[in-house]
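[#protein-structures] MJ: dropping Tat pathway signal sequence domain protein here for a structure pass
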Amino acid sequence: MIHRRNKNLRVVREPENPADPTDKIIEQIMDELNSEDGSMNDMEEQIKKHKIKFWRRIILSTAAVLAVAAGIYLLVNLQTYSKARTLDTYASGGSANNSYMQFADGVLKYSRDGIAYLDQKGEEQWNHAYQIQNPFLDVNEKSAAIADKGGNDIIVFQEDGLKGEIHTTLPIEKINVSEQGIVGAILKNDASAKVMCYDTAGNVLVEHKTSLSGTGYPLDVSLSEDGEVMQVVYLYTQEGKITSKVAYYNFGEKGEDKTDHQVALTEYEDTVMASGFFLNKSTSVAIGDNCLAIYKGGEVPKESSKIMIDKEIKSTFHNSKYIGMILKNEGKEGYELRLYNAGGKRAMSEDFTGDYKNVKICGSQVIMYDGKKCGIFMRSGVQRFSGEMDNNILEIFPVAGVNKYIVMNANGMEKVRLVK
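AK: finished. structure tokens for Tat pathway signal sequence domain protein:
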């Protein structure tokens, strides 16, 4: 017999909304995350504000520096100085009859007895003795040539010294030296004139005969930088009528099949073209008594512009960028200083008073001097200096530094600064 025992079975149910600790943990984590997000947002905002302040300071500081620099620039460059304070003096021995000319990074000192090259501290780098009765110089950036006007000797130099000597068969009237040291010369006697080219060894490269009834009389000669192209300015008269001719000769391939190597010729009636020169390898110029002609082309130059000049030309000068003129004013005192660029556009025009025998352009500065008097104009038209030096000026040119110049006088070399 099987006996069954009754058992009381009880079902235990969990309440419907128990307090689950997991939910609390999750809530705490979310609260912390939300709190951290707020902190992160605050931090990002602070970083952003800091960056803005930082760049604002940088911009303001830069603007302040630029403003100060601009102020200093305007203070230095937009006022006229009237005095020169001597900073250094470098005595150069020799004759009181020395002449000087800026060349390369220094200056050439020359006389009838010889020539020397001085650096910017007046120290002699080399010298060469000779006997020349009437010395005159032609220089460019790399070469210099000294000749005996009316004599027969030409000597060529570069910055490191002597390059060659040339002896001519006729008296020398004019010379021009290329950067390579090739020399063009106008030689003349009572009966005729020749245009010659020589290398530094004295060998004749070109001999061009002229005649009054044919080519005309040569007034000026100029060579391109490499010496391959020659410009000659002629004056021709016929039946009382004056005509100027500007001829170009190419001694390279372009002129091989041309008569006398002549590749271009331009005539100007009722004009006396007195001078010509090359600005650079592709631009050359001829200046007459009433006009300025600019030619473009390295191998076969052609007239690109002609500018009529409505005033009397007192003197001309140039560098590789600008053509300068001193023009006599009409109806009022003084002169006009005028610059043209290589394209023929007027780059500057300023009036001034006073007579100056010497005018040159160095970079963007036009320097005029005569005796102790000196005037300096910037290409912008600002007159940088108007006054006198302590001694007669024999040469002057700007050097590195604010308002610094080297001045050559009878005592030697001085480095000066322009002051009020």
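MJ: nice. Helices lie at 21-77.
AK: one more thing. The two ends are 142 Å apart (CA to CA).
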